[in-house]
Amino acid sequence: MTENTTNTGNTGNTGNTGNAPGSADAYEVVVIGGGAAGLSAALVLGRARRRTLVVDAGEPRNAPAAHMQGYLSRDGMSPAEFLATGREEIARYGVELVRDRAVDATRDGDFAVTLAGGRTVRARQLVVATGLKDELPPVEGLAERFGRDVLHCPYCHGWEVRDQAFGVLATSPMSVHQALIVTQWSKDVKLFLHTVGEAELSDEDLRRLAAAGVGVVPGEVAGLVVEDDRLTGVRLAGGGTDGGAPAGGGTVHAREALFVAPRAVPRTGLLARLGAEMTETPFGRYPVVDGRGLTTVPGLWAAGNASGFAEQVVNAASRGYRAGAAINEELLMGDLDAAVRV
Predict the structure, then answer these.
(1) CA 111, CA 274: separation in Å to the nearest integer?
(2) pLDDT score of 259
(3) Which of 66, 39, 67, 53 is nearest to 131 (CA)?
(4) 3 state DSSP class of 103
(5) 120 and 113 in contact (C-beta within 8 Å)?
(6) Closest-CA residue to 28 (of 103, 158, 126, 140)
(7) What is the C-alpha to C-alpha distance for residues 46 and 97, in angstroms, rounded to an integer?
(8) Which parts of the chain register pLDDT below 50?
(9) How far apart are CA 131 and CA 308, in angstroms?
(10) Cα 181 to chain center, whole Å?
(11) 251 vs 229: CA distance, rounded Å
């Protein structure tokens, strides 16, 4: 479904796309991904009078969250409202947005992007802003509470749950760092080792945890205790008496918020398929990009969480803006160089 098919103000050259000039499927830029990065790039390109299409599958990473924080002038806005506002803004400049999924892309001078709905669109420059997917540990009740009182980022949600009883679910020794960081928002913190053995914690980890007043709870977490649609406890798999044991068995530790580090799965398949050089990081496989977001493939750009793990909404918007401005200049200089050669 095309949400906006107007082209007011976009009079840029469509380039040698292989489609007839002015074809409905020929664009100067196609942006895959309608989150903060993709919409920001599209806004810059629309204002630069570039014929631009945004392909939006409608799967924003922060959809489970009721609010987003830390974005100056937008602090507390819901992610849904933020994206709706962004769509309205790009429409003012003639940028088109289609609700669809990009399932394939090829490059033969220009880019050809195949959509799930069967349409193929072409572009001189391609922005991949498909983000990433959070995979949560398989703990009963975790997914249902994610974005509410099961949280991943204290900078995003710490203020809202300040001074409550925190838990941190350890999925790797790196979870110690998360437990230490969240003590800035609460002094009642317990680190549930879950799948991490006590022997995996270094002496320095233990000293820092003790200094921060973080309690260390060994044993696997079996599930969450929820009462009146609120998290009230974390239940271990074994027996015990700390806070009581419900019919499900296992010690229950009273907690009001639980921090967890999801496994980040970058949606970078299209970038790899197009031949972009990729690099392995502790958080997944990401493209090699320059400071503007350009990959090792000419005309192929990555923005937002498709370019790196640690891009919050404000950072993703900045990345998109930077890519959009750079793309406009690439197109302009490319056309001027081509005119000189004629």
Answers:
(1) 9
(2) 98
(3) 39
(4) strand
(5) yes
(6) 126
(7) 12
(8) 1-9, 11-21, 240-248
(9) 9
(10) 21
(11) 21
